[in-house]
Amino acid sequence: MKDADRIRTYLRERFAEAEAKGLSVVCVKAGDVHKQLGLVHQFPNVVQVMKQFLSEAHRDFIAKQPPSGQGSDVIYVFRLPRPYTLNRISITSPSWTT
Predict the structure, then answer these.
(1) Which CATH code is given to the segment(s) 3-82?
(2) Cα–Cα distance, 38 to 53 (Å, whole number)
């Protein structure tokens, strides 16, 4: 599986997990995604994939972004529920979903 596909799957799983908990938003930090997936020097790829999930219709927004627009400190806030459905799975929650 390509890194971008792994990132997309990871994000969808986090959204599904947060929705199952009844949360209305989920904050995603690029550095956390990068670390959880064991990626090396892939921050631009992580940010690019996260950006693909941004939706004006859902009023998602960028909470923090360095001038370069890339890096581990980029934080996006995604509103839930998302416009797709996933099978609910049981996985360990990263710190940013609690």
Answers:
(1) 3.30.1370
(2) 21
